[in-house]
Write a structure and sequence with these properties.
This protein has one helix at about 10-25, and strands spanning about 35, 40, 95-100, 110, 115, 125, 135-140, 155-160, 160-165, 205. It is mainly β. Among the domains are: about 1-65, no CATH class; about 130-215, Exo-inulinase, domain 1 (Jelly Rolls, Sandwich), CATH 2.60.120. The strands form 5 sheets. It has a two-stranded antiparallel sheet. A hairpin with a 3-residue loop joins strand 8 and strand 9 (about 160-165). It is elongated. The chain starts with 10 loop residues before the first helix and ends in a 15-residue tail after the last strand.
Length: about 220
């Protein structure tokens, strides 16, 4: 980026900058048409990036998908998911979920929220997922009761192995890797952003499974 203070440079320097800009922006490769009627952008004669198959500003590199961002939920209404998301619960039914052995989901839907029914057991998604990004919103019981891990405790299991902790952590001390949003027993959340149960907005957790050399076999969606 050339900042405004560059205007104090000598005229010869400004002329050199202008010549460089024209040289870069006026290359014919940037003006040709590329398939599907979109303008040809980028170049095909730049150096390859180390360790990859794409060039710097590669004209053939796939463009990012256009996605409508999501919005956060409130106590009055659930949030809107991003346009490319797989919505597992939209506040109306449990059609994407099932109970043990593939039986109908035994939980309840009340006021746009999934509510655990006593002794109903766990729910699992009907679809299976690999490496993914998860957005989860949860609300703690009001008024709060109990302390430590005994206050609003639940969890979301991923791959049948990793638990994303659900817990009321507002003014409720507990161990680091047991906080809301933690990978339980392994990685604490970056921050404790829990709100009071009656503050008007649920706590929110966003998680991406950690990939390592030992877990490279986890399939990527799509």
């Amino acid at each position: 980026m050339i900042r405004s203070r560059t205007l104090l440079a000598a005229p010869a320097a400004l002329a050199a900058i202008a010549a460089l800009a024209l040289n870069a922006c006026g290359r014919p490769a940037a003006q040709r048409e590329q398939g599907q009627g979109r303008p040809k952008v980028g170049y095909s004669d730049t150096p390859f990036l180390p360790g990859g198959k794409w060039r710097v500003h590669d004209s053939e590199r796939p463009l990012p998908e256009v996605v409508r961002p999501g919005t956060a939920g409130t106590q009055e209404a659930h949030g809107r998911a991003p346009s490319d998301a797989v919505v597992l619960f939209d506040g109306s039914d449990l059609s994407k979920w099932q109970g043990a052995g593939g039986k109908p989901a035994p939980w309840k839907v009340e006021d746009g929220a999934m509510v655990i029914a006593p002794k109903a057991g766990d729910l699992t998604t009907k679809d299976e997922f690999g490496d993914c990004q998860l957005h989860l919103e949860s609300a703690a019981p009001d008024p709060p009761t109990g302390r430590d891990q005994g206050r609003g405790n639940s969890g979301l299991m991923m791959f049948g192995r990793y638990e994303i902790q659900i817990l009321d952590c507002h003014e409720n001390p507990t161990y680091a890797d047991g906080h809301a949003g933690a990978v339980y027993g392994q990685y604490p959340p970056l921050v404790n952003a829990s709100r009071p149960p009656a503050s008007g907005r649920p706590s929110t957790s966003c998680s991406t499974p950690r990939r390592s050399r030992a877990a490279r076999s986890i399939p990527r969606p799509g």
